[in-house]
Design a protein that fits this description.
Layout: E1 3-7, H1 12-23, E2 27-32, H2 35-49, E3 53-57, H3 65-75, E4 82-85, H4 100-128, E5 131-136, H5 149-169, E6 174-180, E7 184-185, H6 188-191, E8 206-207, H7 208-221, E9 225-227, H8 230-238, H9 244-254
Parallel strand pairs: 1-2, 1-4, 2-3, 4-5, 5-6, 6-9, 7-8
Helix pairs in contact: 1-2, 1-7, 3-4, 4-5
């Protein structure tokens, strides 16, 4: 029986991925900040699917959080077969006006924690010559993002880092998949104050369940890059064929707030 570790597992794509892995019979390690919500999910999934769910309430933007999670699982002799680095958040506003403490948290969570989790668990996977990792990036990874400069840059890091690591370990029986969702119905919109932007308002956007199902299949198939949605795939690839100065203007326009 496989064990899947999911960060940011208390809502959105992370929660839907937990449900999918539970339905496949995987035991789960769920990591998020909200202990109460995690325990509710634990009871629901253990009851419905007769699996084991271990919850760890942890703020992954804090230093050494990934190491603490890893050490706790080592003490319990828990072997992680699938690692899903889903936790992350964004913020909206001109960089010269936004809050540095929040941006530092974003960098720590979106980049540092994800990289550290990958380092720790990948080493064990290499020794076993098996395992799968999915790092959740975004279609934001494919271009610069005025009014969300740090978020877009952090997701570009996730994409480039994950693609490189996949190349390093694929011949060792391990795959690293980068899931790149476009606009998705999650708590991200409210957290990033994006619900009133042209990118989202009045548009039909994907559900977290749809993205999770797509991501699960991509990871199990060992895809390197998985972009959800035909239009998202077209847009992500189109930026390679237009001047970067034009691409950045398009993003700026799409993220403008509608009054």
């Amino acid at each position: 029986m496989a064990t899947t570790l999911i960060t940011g597992a208390s809502n959105g794509i992370g929660l839907e991925l937990a449900k999918i892995h539970a339905s496949k019979g995987d035991n789960l390690v769920l990591v998020a900040r909200n202990k109460t919500k995690l325990n509710e999910i634990k009871i629901e999934l253990e009851t419905q699917y007769k699996i084991l769910v271990h919850t760890i309430a942890k703020d992954l933007s804090q230093p050494n959080a990934a190491q603490e999670v890893y050490d706790e699982l080592k003490q319990k002799n828990t072997v992680v077969n699938y690692l899903i680095n889903n936790a992350g958040f964004g913020d909206y506003g001109f960089f010269y006006e936004t809050n540095w403490d929040k941006e530092l948290q974003m960098i720590n969570l979106n980049i540092s924690a994800l990289t550290h989790f990958t380092k720790l668990f990948l080493q064990d996977m290499v020794k076993r010559k098996s395992g799968k990792i999915m790092n959740v990036a975004s279609t934001a990874a494919f271009q610069s993002g005025p009014t969300m400069a740090v978020y877009y840059a952090s997701k570009a890091y996730v994409l480039n880092f994950s693609e490189a690591i996949d190349n390093e370990v694929r011949d060792k029986g391990i795959t690293v998949t980068t899931l790149c969702p476009g606009p998705t119905e999650t708590g991200f919109l409210e957290a990033a104050a994006l619900q009133d932007s042209k990118l989202f308002k009045g548009k039909k956007i994907a559900s977290a369940k749809e993205v999770a199902e797509y991501g699960y299949k991509a990871m199990m198939q060992g895809k390197t890059i998985a972009i959800h949605g035909l239009m998202n795939r077209i847009m992500a690839n189109a930026v390679r064929f237009i001047p970067r100065s034009m691409a950045v203007k398009v993003v700026r326009s799409l993220q403008a707030k509608i009054n």
